C-alpha cells in the first residue's frame, strides 16, 4: 500500500518536472527489450562474421519457433496470473502420438496434424478445467500434467523413439516456402492470430481483466472459469503445434523431446515483459524475448562458448531482465 | 508526552492531512474523532512509521522522532491496536502475542516454548483475561481475538498505545473489561490515543478529544465539557444540505424486492424493497452484514434461503452474470481489491461489463468503445490525461468515477453502491452525490451502503439499519436522525 502510494507520487512529480525526459523513459520502457535485442545483434555481428547472414538469421528464428510458439501460449496464461509447466511434456506426448500416424503411405497428412492439435488442446482443457473448477493452483495442476504427459509418452513408446516419417509430414519442420522455412511461417501466423485475439477481441480484454483482478472480473460478470479453460486450452493447442513442428524437424517422435521447453518459454515471456503478477504482457514482447534467447544461444555457439557457460549466462540474463523490469515498473 | 505539529501528507489528488496537530498528555486518554476520510488513520500511520509525512514534526517523550518503520515506533514505546485484526490463524495465542520477539536460545532461534507460554500467562493474569495461551487463534471468538490484540499491544510495555475503534467488535462485558484495563494503564502513566465513533465512550473513558475534518485540524477540547451537538458540528462542520443537493423525484413501482433472505453466519431474514427513482440507504456498523446482503442479492455468494423479485417477478440469481442480466449493477466497497484492474487502462477498466455490446462477429468495435468511453468520461468529468492512462495513476475519486462509468455503460435498472465515497476527497464526493441524484431522477432504483451517517441521511429516501446480521429498523427520510440510526445500528433499539 505505502509503496504503491509513493510510486504514484514520483510519477506525478516527474510529469511536472520534465515531460521530454518522461517521453524518453516511456519509449525506453516500451521498447527497452527491443533495443537490447538490436544491441545484441550488433554485438554478435561484430564478434562473429558469420552471424549476420540471411542463412544464420533464418536459422535462429527457425530454431526458436518451437519455443516461441509455446511461449505465446504461456504468455496468455501468465497474463491471467497462471502458469503452465506442462508444455514440454505435452510436446513429447504429441510427438510420439503424431509420429505413429505419420508413417509413409498410411494416413493422409491431415490425420496426424488433427490428432496432434486435438491432443494438445485436450491436455490444456484438462489443465484449465481442473484449475478453474477444482480451484487448484495452476502450478500444481500443470506440474501434475507435466509429469503425467511425460509418463504417457514413455509408456506409449516404451521409451523408444518413433521413426520412419512420411516426406509430406517432414515438410512441416524442414521445408520452406519462397525461401522461408515453414516453422517460421507457422510461428508468424500463430503470433498474428494471438495478437489479434489478445487485442481485438472480447477474449483478450477478459484475459487482461482476469489477470488484473480476478474478483473484480467476477463481479463485472466475466465467466472466469470458462475463459480460464479457453486460455489453458489455447496454450495446450499451441504446445500441440510446437510438438508437430518439432517431430517433423527431427524426423521422429521422441518421448524425451521438449525437456525444459516450458522453462525457456516462461523465460521468453518474462524477458519480454510479461508480469508474473498478472495483467501485463504482450505477444510482441514475448516474441522479442524468444529472439533474445535465440540470438544468445546462436551467437554464443558461433563464438565457441561452452554450453555449460551458456546456461549460466542465460540464467543470469533472465534474472537481470526481471530486475530491470521491476525497477522500471517502480519508476514509471 | 506526544506532540505532532504541522503534519502534512499528500496523496495524488488528495491532501490527506493539511497542517494537522495532535498533543497528547502523559497518563491521559486522548480521543481522536472525525468522519471516515477525515485523516485519523493517515495521522496514526504516520505516527507509527507506515507513512512518512511530507512535512511537520513529531516530538515524543521530549525527543524528535523520524520513523521509517513500525519496529522503530515499537522500540520507542508506541504500539497500536489496529481496527482490522490480523492474527495468524494457525498459531497459538502466545505465539501471536510474541511474534517477532519470541524468547529463544541465542542465535539458534530455537524458541523457549515454556517461557513463551509463561510470559503470556503472566500478561493475561495482569490484565485479568481468561484465554488459554495455547489455544489456536482460529478457534477464538472475534471478541477474544480482539482481547488478544489488546493484550499484545500492552505487552510491548509501551508509553503510548493507539487504539483504533477497539470496541467495534466486542460486547458490553468486554468493553467494561477494556475500560478497566485502560484506567489501570493510565495510573501507570501510559498515554492512549483512542479512535472512536461512539459518542458516549467519550465521557466514559477519555480526557480530551481532538477532531479532524477533511484532513484539517478542527480543535481539541476536554471531553467532560463538550456536548454531542458541539462535537457533531466540529466533525461535520457544514450544513448537510449544502453538499446534498437532493432533487424531488417521483418514486414509482417496486423494482427490487427481497424477502426473508438468509445466509448462515452472515445475515438472517433480511427483507427490503426499493422502487424506481428511489434511493434506499443501508446503515449499520462494520460487520453488520450490509455488504454481505447486497453481495448475496448480486449472486456473488448466493443466499441459503429467501426470495428475490425483480419488477414483481421471481428471480433466480446464482451468479453475478445472472444479476447483470436482470439489470443489476454493483459498485463494491473496496475499490482496489474487488473493483479496479490496476494494471489496465482507464478505458479497459470501463468496458468490462458492457463488452458484449461492443463485440461484432467476435471482434471489438474499438471506435464505438472509444466514443462511448469518451462521452461518459466527459459526462462524469473523469480527470485523466487520456483514456489509455493506466488507472493505477488516477486519484481515488477519479478511479471511483471510472468504476461507476463501468456500470453506467451497461445502463442497469438497479444499482448497488457500497461505500461509494470511501477514501475520496470532498469535492469528488459531492460530484458523486449529484450523480447518484441524477441516476435516481432517471428512474434507477439505487441502494447505497454508507458508514458515514451524514451521507446516508443526505442521500436516502428511506434507510434500512442493520445490526449483527439482522435488520433492526427502517426509517423514512423525515423520521431519520443520527441518533435513531445509531440506536438501531448498535442494537439498542429494534423496530422490526
In short:
The complex is a heterodimer of chains A (332) and B (496). Chain A is mainly alpha-helical.
Descriptive account of the structure:
The complex is a heterodimer of chains A (332) and B (496). With 332 residues, chain A is mainly α. Chain A is built from 14 helices and two strands. Chain A has helices spanning 2-17, 19-47, 54-79, 87-100, 110-133, 138-157, 167-174, 182-200, 202-212, 214-219, 224-250, 261-271, 283-302, 307-331, and strands at 176-177, 180-181. A two-stranded antiparallel ribbon of chain A has the order 1-2. In chain A, a hairpin with a 2-residue loop joins strand 1 (176-177) and strand 2 (180-181). The radius of gyration of chain A is 21 Å and the shape is globular. Mean pLDDT of chain A is 89; it is low at 1-18. Chain B has 496 residues and is an alpha/beta fold. In chain B, the strands form six sheets. Chain B has a six-stranded mixed β-sheet with strand order 6-9-10-3-11-12, sandwiched between helices. A six-stranded mixed β-sheet of chain B has the order 18-21-22-15-23-24, with helices on both faces. The interface between A and B is medium-sized, with 31 and 36 residues.
Strand order of the largest sheet of chain A: 1-2
Q: Give the percentage of residues in beta strands of chain A.
A: under 5%
Largest sheet of chain A: 2 strands, antiparallel
Measured between the Cα atoms of the first and last residue of chain B, the distance is 49 Å
Proportion in β-strands of chain B: 25-35%
- How far apart lie the N and C ends of chain A? 16 Å
Integer-rounded radius of gyration of chain A: 21 Å
The average pLDDT score of chain B comes to 88
Number of DSSP-assigned strands of chain A: 2
By DSSP (H or I, 4+ residues per run), the number of helices of chain B equals 18
Shape of chain A, please? globular
Q: Determine the fraction of residues in helical runs of chain A and give it as a percent range.
A: over 70%
- Structural class, from helix and strand content of chain A? mainly alpha
Along the chain, the helix and strand elements of chain A come as: HHHHHHHEEHHHHHHH
Uncertain regions spanning at least 5 consecutive residues of chain A: 1-18
Amino acid at each position: 500500500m505505502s509503496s504503491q502510494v509513493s510510486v504514484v507520487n514520483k510519477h506525478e512529480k516527474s510529469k511536472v518536472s520534465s515531460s521530454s525526459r518522461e517521453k524518453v523513459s516511456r519509449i525506453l520502457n516500451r521498447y527497452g527489450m527491443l533495443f537490447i535485442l538490436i544491441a545484441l545483434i550488433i554485438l554478435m555481428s561484430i564478434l562473429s562474421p558469420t552471424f549476420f547472414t540471411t542463412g544464420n538469421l533464418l536459422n535462429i528464428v527457425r530454431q526458436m519457433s518451437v519455443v516461441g510458439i509455446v511461449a505465446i501460449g504461456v504468455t496468455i496464461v501468465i497474463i491471467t496470473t497462471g502458469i503452465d509447466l506442462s508444455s514440454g511434456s505435452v510436446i513429447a506426448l504429441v510427438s510420439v502420438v503424431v509420429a505413429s500416424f505419420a508413417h509413409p503411405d498410411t494416413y493422409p497428412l491431415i490425420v496426424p496434424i488433427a490428432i496432434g492439435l486435438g491432443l494438445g488442446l485436450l491436455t490444456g482443457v484438462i489443465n484449465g478445467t481442473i484449475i478453474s473448477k477444482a480451484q487448484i493452483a495452476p502450478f500444481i495442476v500443470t506440474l501434475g500434467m507435466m509429469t503425467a504427459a511425460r509418463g504417457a509418452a514413455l509408456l506409449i513408446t516404451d521409451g523408444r523413439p518413433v521413426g520412419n516419417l512420411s516426406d509430406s509430414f517432414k515438410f512441416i519442420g524442414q521445408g520452406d516456402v519462397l525461401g522461408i522455412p515453414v516453422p517460421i511461417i507457422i510461428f508468424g501466423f500463430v503470433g498474428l492470430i494471438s495478437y489479434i485475439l489478445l487485442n481485438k477481441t472480447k477474449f483478450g480484454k477478459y484475459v487482461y481483466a482476469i489477470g488484473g483482478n480476478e474478483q473484480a472480473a467476477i463481479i463485472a460478470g466475466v465467466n472466469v472459469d470458462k475463459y480460464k479453460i479457453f486460455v489453458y486450452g489455447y496454450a495446450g493447442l499451441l504446445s500441440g503445434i510446437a510438438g508437430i513442428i518439432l517431430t517433423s524437424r527431427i524426423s521422429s517422435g521422441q518421448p524425451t523431446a521438449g525437456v525444459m521447453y516450458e522453462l525457456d518459454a516462461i523465460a521468453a515471456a518474462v524477458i519480454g515483459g510479461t508480469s508474473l503478477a498478472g495483467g501485463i504482457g504482450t505477444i510482441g514482447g514475448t516474441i522479442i524475448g524468444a529472439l533474445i534467447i535465440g540470438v544468445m544461444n546462436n551467437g554464443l555457439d558461433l563464438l565457441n562458448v561452452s554450453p555449460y557457460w551458456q546456461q549460466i549466462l542465460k540464467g543470469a540474463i533472465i534474472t537481470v531482465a526481471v530486475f530491470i523490469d521491476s525497477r522500471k515498473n517502480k519508476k514509471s | 508526552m506526544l506532540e505532532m505539529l504541522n503534519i502534512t501528507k499528500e496523496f495524488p489528488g488528495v491532501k490527506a492531512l493539511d497542517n494537522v496537530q495532535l498533543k497528547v498528555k502523559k497518563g491521559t486518554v486522548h480521543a481522536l474523532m472525525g468522519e471516515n476520510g477525515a485523516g485519523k488513520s493517515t495521522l496514526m500511520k504516520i505516527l507509527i512509521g507506515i507513512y512518512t509525512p511530507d512535512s511537520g514534526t513529531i516530538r515524543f517523550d521530549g525527543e524528535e522522532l523520524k520513523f521509517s518503520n513500525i519496529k522503530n515506533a515499537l522500540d520507542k514505546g508506541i504500539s497500536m491496536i489496529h481496527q482490522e485484526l490480523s492474527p495468524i490463524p494457525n498459531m497459538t495465542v502466545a505465539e501471536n502475542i510474541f511474534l517477532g520477539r519470541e524468547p529463544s536460545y541465542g542465535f539458534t532461534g530455537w524458541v523457549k516454548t515454556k517461557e513463551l507460554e509463561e510470559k503470556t500467562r503472566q500478561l493475561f493474569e495482569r490484565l485479568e483475561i481468561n484465554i488459554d495461551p495455547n489455544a489456536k487463534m482460529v478457534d477464538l471468538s472475534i471478541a477474544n481475538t480482539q482481547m488478544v490484540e489488546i493484550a499484545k499491544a500492552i505487552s510491548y510495555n509501551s508509553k503510548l498505545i493507539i487504539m483504533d475503534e477497539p470496541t467495534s467488535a466486542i460486547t458490553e462485558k468486554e468493553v467494561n473489561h477494556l475500560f478497566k484495563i485502560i484506567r489501570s494503564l493510565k495510573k501507570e502513566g501510559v498515554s492512549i490515543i483512542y479512535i472512536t465513533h461512539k459518542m458516549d465512550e467519550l465521557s466514559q473513558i477519555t480526557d480530551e478529544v481532538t477532531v479532524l475534518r477533511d484532513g484539517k485540524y478542527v480543535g481539541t477540547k476536554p471531553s467532560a465539557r463538550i456536548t454531542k451537538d458541539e462535537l457533531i458540528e466540529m466533525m461535520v462542520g457544514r450544513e448537510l444540505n449544502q453538499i446534498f443537493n437532493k432533487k424531488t423525484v417521483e418514486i414509482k413501482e417496486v423494482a427490487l424486492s427481497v424477502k426473508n433472505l438468509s445466509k448462515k453466519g452472515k445475515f438472517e431474514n433480511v427483507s427490503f424493497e426499493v422502487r424506481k427513482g428511489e434511493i434506499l440507504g443501508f446503515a449499520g456498523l462494520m460487520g453488520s452484514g450490509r455488504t454481505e446482503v447486497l453481495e448475496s442479492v448480486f449472486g456473488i455468494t448466493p443466499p441459503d434461503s429467501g426470495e428475490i423479485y425483480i419488477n414483481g417477478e421471481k428471480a433466480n440469481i446464482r451468479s453475478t452474470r445472472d444479476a447483470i442480466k436482470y439489470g443489476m449493477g454493483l459498485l463494491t466497497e473496496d475499490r482496489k481489491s474487488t473493483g479496479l484492474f490496476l494494471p489496465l487502462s482507464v478505458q479497459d477498466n470501463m468496458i468490462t461489463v458492457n463488452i458484449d455490446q461492443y463485440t461484432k462477429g467476435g471482434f471489438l468495435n474499438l471506435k464505438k468503445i472509444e466514443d462511448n468511453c469518451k462521452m461518459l468520461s466527459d459526462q462524469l468529468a473523469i480527470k485523466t490525461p487520456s483514456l489509455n492512462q493506466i488507472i493505477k495513476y488516477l486519484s481515488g475519486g477519479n478511479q471511483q468515477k471510472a468504476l461507476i462509468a463501468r456500470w453506467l455503460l451497461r445502463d442497469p435498472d438497479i444499482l448497488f453502491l457500497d461505500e461509494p465515497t470511501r477514501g475520496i476527497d470532498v469535492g469528488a464526493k459531492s460530484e458523486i452525490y449529484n450523480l447518484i441524484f441524477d441516476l435516481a431522477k432517471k428512474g434507477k432504483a439505487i441502494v447505497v451502503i454508507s458508514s458515514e451517517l451524514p451521507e446516508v441521511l443526505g442521500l436516502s429516501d428511506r434507510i434500512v439499519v442493520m445490526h449483527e446480521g439482522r435488520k433492526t429498523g427502517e426509517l423514512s427520510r423525515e423520521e431519520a436522525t443520527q441518533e435513531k440510526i445509531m440506536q438501531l445500528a448498535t442494537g439498542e433499539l429494534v423496530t422490526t
